Amino acid sequence: MPRHLSSDRLLFGSTLVLVLFGVLMVFSASAMMAESRFGSGYYFLSRQLIWAVFGLLVLVGFMHSNYKRLRHPAVVFPAFFLQLALLMAVLLWDDSQTIRRWLPLGKFFFQPSELSKIILVIFLAYFLEKRQGRINDLSHTLLPVGFLTGVTVLLVVQEPDLGTAVLLVLTASAMLFAAGMRVIYFGYLFLASLIPLYFLVVKVPYRWDRILTFLNPYSDPLGRGFQIIQSLTAVGSGGMDGLGFMEGRQKLFYLPAAHTDFVFAVVGEELGFIGCLVVLALFGVILWRGIRASLKCPDEFGRLLALGLTALIIIQVLVNVSVVVGIVPTKGLPLPLVSYGGSSLVSNMMALGILLNVSQQSG
Fold first, then answer.
1. How many whole angstroms separate alpha carbon 312 and alpha carbon 303?
2. Cβ contact 357:295 at 8 Å
3. pTM of the entire predicted model
4. What is the pLDDT of residues 17-65, one digit of tens each?
5. Range of the domain at 49
6. pLDDT digits (tens, 9 = 90+) for 251-294
7. Number of domains forming the structure of the chain
8. For the chain, where are the alpha helices, taking DSSP H only?
9. Which three-class secondary structure state does DSSP give residue 202?
């Protein structure tokens, strides 16, 4: 049986603080826009609160459910093929739309790729444990892993959602490395990815525009470079301690996606460098406790599961923050637990619920 929650109060506490903080920042970043578009400044706040409560129930449920149940074939394989079916359903639901990422769920919308992140980590932890000692076997381990991961990634790319696809590849790579895959194979993987990346980035106009904008956003300050310039302006104007909560200016119809992908820019403007450091420190606690849980876990499945879920969250944090401060091109990944979005919030809380259970049982 799992230990009491107090065995990892740091991980739980950091998660809860980030979720509550996220609700406040979503309200601050969206109130004026919500009032203008929907007639109520509380539109996004109320929806985020609903998802936060639901996510907390999901987190507590998985936290008190033995993670070893997830390694059963009757769970792993149906879950894996379910996420493939949901990803295909997204592509078939409404082919009149250019972007197809959501399925209707009553008055809300559900993004299957968020669930795919968790299920892929569980599947890889199960599969790699079964191949323990034969990780570098090309025909029995690497090719099956590459094929099954590739199918998921390909479906996500078709939505199109290259950012999430890259996240899946990086997370799978981290798990393979932890399982003992030789470094030389990563070199082969990188070389093999160059051709598809060429066609997915260079040959797709809007993605190539993002690269050009990243290299010189001021070449088109009122067009392609507008968003990143406004983001840098928000972060820079916050100074050391910020302008104060709700006092940010860039969110007032200047910074696009202020409550979603660029909420960290609002944090920087309103709470300053100190506020940004506190947020990153809380994610640092999640990284620390996740690695600790992985290192102390007595079984290979739990070790890889904890590492994969930790990597999944932290890679998103690194990419999102890097986009906001102009280190990497725009990717469209939200800041876990903080950005507005029900699917992302619930899936990340599910991941942390599983991670909490692994941590509790790891001592």
1. 14
2. no
3. 0.94
4. 999 999 999 999 999 999 999 999 999 999 999 999 999 999 999 999 9
5. 5-362
6. 988 998 899 999 999 999 999 999 999 999 999 999 999 999 99
7. 1
8. 9-38, 43-63, 73-93, 112-130, 143-157, 162-179, 183-197, 205-215, 226-237, 263-296, 300-324, 342-362
9. helix
